[in-house]
Please model this.
Amino acid sequence: MAVVPILPDEAAGAAARAVFADIRATRRTDLVNNFWRALAHDPALLKATWERLQAVMAPGALDPLTKEMIYIAVSVANGCGYCIHSHTAAARAKGMTEAQHGELLAVIAMASQTNALATALQVPVDPAFRTEERP
Model:
């Protein structure tokens, strides 16, 4: 159950409805998902989060599918079920295949295991890997 009500359009203020309209136009859909509707209680936060998400997830040095797959991995690491579902759907819409999804999950699982082992063993970082020692 949500901590705040999921606001329908008619209960959202004008500023939130303007962001909803931009979400619909940008995504070419009538759906404004529950994440944005929960954030609508704070229209300034809603607007800032939407604008930042658009900037970060836009094509750049990383393509949009790669960005969605990274988002899935971070969401798994953070235990955010909502984001796992929403960004898996977004990645599939951007062309992620079942084989890619399976491989992504294998990488996430492997990284989780080796991260836990390195943390538990407190393995010192090799000088060759330390970024501050590189020219």
Notes: The CA atoms of residues 26 and 117 lie 43 Å apart. The chain has a mean pLDDT of 95.
